[in-house]
Amino acid sequence: MEWHKIPFSKRDILFFLLLVFGSATFIAMYYGQSWKTGVADAGFFVIQLVLGLFLLVNMLHYYPPSKINAWPALLFSLVVSVLLVFGGKWLARGILDTNAVFFVFYEKSIPARLGIMFLLLYCVAIFMLLIKNFEKGWNQQQLGEMSRKLSKDAELFYLRQQLQPHFLFNSLNSISALLGSDPKKARLMLQELADFFRASLKKDPMKWERVDEEYKIISQYLSIEKVRFGHRLDFRFNMEEGVGDLMVPPLLIQPLVENAIKHGLYGVTGDILIEFTAKKEGNYFVIVITNPCSQQSGGPRGVGFGLESVERRLYLLFGRKDLLHYKKDNDNFTVSMKIPQPK
After folding, report:
1. Could you tell me if 136 and 194 lie in one domain?
2. Ranges for the Signal transduction histidine kinase internal region domain (predicted)?
3. What global pTM score does this model have?
4. Residues 3-28: pLDDT tens digits?
């Protein structure tokens, strides 16, 4: 295993070895050895330690424990320490005179050398195991978060893909009906439909937009529906000053508008008025949409695909289920939505 694979910087390793070298020199001199003997002994000990660290790093690389486990590291550190210390004695015996000061000091200090070598290797092994397991846990957490984000993005994309064909089919059915009775209106509606989809397809589903930009898309959508239903459909906007600068996820309001038109016209005879109120409350953008509904027909059945999709998108975006409310009051159906503003 290459040294650059060790989870320490070169500066850390150098500082650690210099600390060991200085400590070994000081200990030798403290026990009556000359500074030359101390430096030689410390250099020899550092060379043994570097060899032990190299063996230890390779062991942990090729035989990593599945979890933090002190026993393999303890056993390996002990075996390597014994081999290095007694191997060093054998090497010194072959090179030096057995009466040499360095060799005599080395032989007398074998128990201490063995204990210090084992302690250093074992501490490094445990520290490396902790780092590796921390990195493994961190990587698993990152993968889990990435997987959840991809799943959420995929569901958001799926909801948007469902909404557009839902609206497209209704519009094409209306165009088909108008082709025979009023070709001019059919062409106008087709042109409005093309402009609407051209604008909506340019939007980045992950990028929020100003309320003013979203209002343009809603206006294009209402123009299509105005051609479709003629004089029966009318709408009124009440927007507080400064609301246009607030931010909203793209195409989140349009399904609410579609739901209001669909269920406002359901069972209602005569003209209908749909009201939009947009305002800021604290750190929220709030939009309230009110449409008439028929008491005799029972009103809209269920909450509709549009409301369900918006409710799901809000939960995926904010993890909350209290941002969308709807109620039926006498002859009106009201939907209110709050969108937290980015900080």
Report:
1. no
2. 154-233
3. 0.53
4. 434 556 778 778 878 888 888 888 87
Six token digits for residue 176 = 């088909």
For residues 231 and 313, state if they share a domain. Answer: yes
Which candidate, 160, 190, 197, places its Cα nearest to that of 175? Answer: 190
- Domains identified in the chain, total number: 2
Beta-bridged to residue 325, according to DSSP, are: 336
| CA atoms of 41 and 44, how far apart (whole Å) | 5
User: What domain range is 116 assigned to?
Assistant: 3-143
Q: Is 147 exposed, middle or buried (0-12, 13-18, 19+ CB in 10 A)?
A: exposed
Q: Do 251 and 133 have their domain in common?
A: no
All residue ranges of the chain with pLDDT < 70 are 1-8, 60-70, 92-99, 133-167, 170, 200-206, 266-268, 294-305
Task: Please report whether residue 188 resides in a domain.
Answer: yes
Q: What is the CA radius of gyration of the chain?
A: 38
Cβ atoms of 65 and 129 within 8 Å: the answer is yes
Up-side HSE of residue 158: CA atoms within 13 Å toward CB? 8
Residue spans of alpha helices (H) in the chain: 10-30, 35-62, 70-95, 101-108, 110-181, 183-201, 211-229, 254-265, 304-318
CA distances from 122 to 5, 14, 47, 51, 52 (A): 19, 19, 17, 14, 11
Burial pattern 245-267, b for ≥16 Cβ within 10 A else e, equals ebbbbbbbbbbbbbbbbbbbbbe
In a domain, 291, yes or no: yes
Residue with tokens 């060790």: 6
Residue at which a domain ends, from 92, 112, 143: 143
Using CA atoms, how far apart are residues 314 and 320, in angstroms rounded to an integer?
A: 7
Q: How far apart are CA 164 and CA 179, in angstroms?
A: 22
Which residues does 330 contact at the CB level (< 8 Å), separation at least 6? 295
